[in-house]
């Protein structure tokens, strides 16, 4: 039995008391969502309890409920909104304690409130900002929102903003707070307590994969003039081998004609059933049978060799797409004209 008050217990001890209060049936369901290490620690903690008072159970359950509600308030209206609601319900000190505990564990991302803003409204709000400010905001939004805003920016700004997102690494919390302070009068604000990672090439790739083809070409063409190496890396990541399932049958057949059989068999080593089925479907029965036999008798291969062969296939797809022989569906602007 704990002789200390509930406020002095560790989080692990409180979790054990909560599970005891929930009973074995519901605790078992919760265990299904934990990893083995956490299950082991909690099991040992539960086993060490000789007696848990009803008062301890009620206090822990109440604290758990307050944390869950606070997290819900944050997701709906941000930290400022959550703190105001909690202050009215629990008082200033209690609200501050809960908010501090949540922000330390949730790692709330800057500009989280902007994710609830319509892209068209967001565009009107930030389009006159400095390109670096726009890039910082887009880097923290979800890819769908970022893509919508990027596509709607003036053509001369798109490549500049995309480049700034791609080369962005870590942003000082002071800079983030200053940008959020500027936006404070119109929208809710929140701040970050730590250095946070945002931006990078993968963010640009996800954005470009969601804009229309015309916007994508314009950005990449302008970016290639200024930074060819960065542009090549972005292009390499925009389409991976497994994405060939998105090609229509005619396009895939054109691709397969260009691929050497050795590269194709290596590229398919360990690939998904969906990708294999798509490839076999677009080959003659004789060629498909031959490929299956080759894969069956192929011994262990180096992952690097597989990746190189897959990249050769991707390069062929890119070459045919640039020539206009095939169409790779990306974004909203790729509808076919019949």
UniProtKB/TrEMBL annotation:
Residue intervals of the Flagellar motor switch protein FliG N-terminal domain: 8-111
Keywords per UniProt: Bacterial flagellum, Cell membrane, Cell projection, Chemotaxis, Cilium, Flagellar rotation, Flagellum, Membrane
Topological relation to the membrane, as annotated: Peripheral membrane protein
Entry-linked InterPro entries: Flg_Motor_Flig, Flg_Motor_Flig_C, FliG_a-hlx, FliG_M, FliG_N
Compartment(s): Bacterial flagellum basal body; Cell membrane
Keyword RNA-binding on entry: no
GO (cellular component) term, any one: plasma membrane
Gene Ontology biological process terms from the UniProt entry: bacterial-type flagellum-dependent cell motility; chemotaxis
GO terms, molecular function: cytoskeletal motor activity
Domain Flagellar motor switch protein FliG middle: 119-193
Keyword Cell membrane belongs to the record: yes
Location of the Flagellar motor switch protein FliG C-terminal domain: 221-327
Family: Belongs to the FliG family.
PANTHER family: FLAGELLAR MOTOR SWITCH PROTEIN FLIG
The protein's name in its UniProt record: Flagellar motor switch protein FliG
């Amino acid at each position: 039995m704990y002789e200390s008050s509930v406020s002095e217990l560790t989080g692990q001890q409180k979790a054990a008391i909560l599970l005891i209060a929930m009973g074995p049936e519901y605790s078992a369901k919760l265990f299904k969502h934990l990893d083995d290490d956490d299950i082991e620690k909690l099991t040992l903690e539960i086993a060490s309890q000789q007696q848990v008072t009803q008062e301890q159970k009620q206090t822990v359950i109440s604290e758990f409920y307050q944390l869950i509600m606070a997290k819900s308030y944050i997701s709906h209206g941000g930290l400022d909104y959550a703190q105001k609601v909690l202050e009215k319900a629990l008082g200033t000190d209690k609200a501050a304690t809960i908010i501090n505990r949540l922000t330390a564990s949730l790692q709330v991302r800057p500009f989280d409130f902007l994710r609830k803003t319509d892209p068209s409204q967001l565009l009107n709000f930030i389009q006159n900002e400095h390109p670096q400010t726009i890039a910082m905001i887009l880097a923290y939004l979800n890819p769908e929102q970022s893509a919508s805003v990027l596509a709607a920016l003036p053509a001369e700004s798109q490549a500049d903003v995309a480049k700034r997102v791609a080369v962005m690494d870590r942003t000082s919390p002071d800079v983030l707070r200053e940008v959020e302070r500027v936006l404070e009068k119109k929208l809710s604000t929140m701040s970050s307590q730590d250095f946070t990672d945002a931006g990078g090439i993968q963010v640009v790739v996800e954005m470009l994969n969601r804009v229309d083809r015309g916007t994508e070409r314009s950005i990449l063409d302008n970016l290639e003039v200024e930074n060819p190496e960065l542009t090549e890396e972005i292009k390499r990541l925009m389409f991976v081998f497994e994405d060939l399932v998105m090609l229509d049958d005619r396009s895939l057949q054109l691709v397969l004609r260009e691929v050497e059989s050795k590269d194709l068999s290596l590229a398919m080593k360990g690939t998904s059933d969906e990708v294999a089925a798509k490839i076999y479907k677009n080959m003659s029965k004789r060629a498909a049978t031959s490929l299956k036999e080759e894969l069956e008798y192929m011994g262990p291969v180096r992952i690097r060799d597989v990746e190189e062969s897959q990249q050769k296939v991707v390069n062929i797809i890119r070459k045919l797409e640039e020539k206009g022989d095939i169409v790779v569906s990306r974004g909203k602007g790729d509808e076919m004209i019949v």
